[in-house]
Amino acid sequence: MRERETLRRFFPEAVLTYCLELWHHYAFTFKITRKRATKLGDYKYHPSSKKHTITVNNDLNSYAFLVTYLHEVAHLITYKSHGRSVLPHGKEWKNAFREVMQPVLNTNVFPGDLLYQLQRYLENPKASSCNDHALTSALARYDKYPGTILKDIEPGSLFKHGKKTYQKEALRRTRYICKEVKSGRRYLISKSAPVEPLTVTPPGGNG
């Protein structure tokens, strides 16, 4: 089956059948997209065509890809049951997410350290796994090319995030204030965000 061969590149082998069953059962359009700086995946309902679409970034490791996929499937399930009458990441979504995650929460799918963090996270899942820093760090250990995250670099350091260059400033709860070098504007960026440290001051970076 062509679908199975395509998905094998992205999912852990042990969950292929389960993920295909969810795809076919809920009959959504599934798109694997290029990396997006602002999201790992998303779910959308199109009222005009009455179709559901789920997207997941293609640069995620297989464990992060699976968690993101099931996160979005839980949004679809919640929408089918409740429409827009509930909060996007309210108790209904949390219950749906726990339910679709349950069949994969075992050591046949996840390494033990990651399984522990997922079980802890699912006690009260957040809107994005990126907001759970212990889980983000655990998932990042399985990236093909593990990178640097914002909390690892020194205050005052320059770094690239997405296509822009920033300077790291003060920590505000779970995010750092960062100045975008070109515009001088300040943004809040998750301390677990992947970044590319810069060792030299870029052009225009003295302001």
Features:
SH3 type barrels; alpha+beta; single chain; 207 residues; 9 strands; disordered C terminus; 3-stranded mixed sheet; globular; 6-stranded antiparallel sheet
Provide an overview of this structure.
This protein is an alpha+beta fold and 207 residues long. The protein has helices at residues 2-7, 16-26, 62-82, 91-101, 112-121, 133-140, and strands at 29-33, 41-46, 51-57, 148-149, 158-161, 164-172, 175-180, 186-190, 194-198. It contains 6 helices and 9 strands, in the order ααβββααααββββββ. It has a 6-stranded antiparallel beta sheet, with no helix packed on it. Strands 1-3-2 form a 3-stranded mixed beta sheet. It has 2 domains: 2-140; 148-198, Roll (SH3 type barrels), CATH 2.30.30. Mean pLDDT is 89; it is low at 201-207. α3 (62-82) crosses α4 (91-101) and α5 packs antiparallel against α6. β2 and β3 form a beta hairpin. Helices cover 32% and strands 24% of the residues. 29% of the residues are buried.
User: Over all CA atoms, what is the radius of gyration?
Assistant: 19 Å
Number of helices: 6
What is the number of strand segments? 9
Question: How many domains, as an integer?
Answer: 2
Task: Give the ordered list of helices and strands.
Answer: HHEEEHHHHEEEEEE
**Helical content band:** 25-40%
As residue ranges, the low-confidence spans are 201-207
Category from helices, strands and their pairing: alpha+beta
General shape? globular
Largest pleated sheet: 6 strands, antiparallel
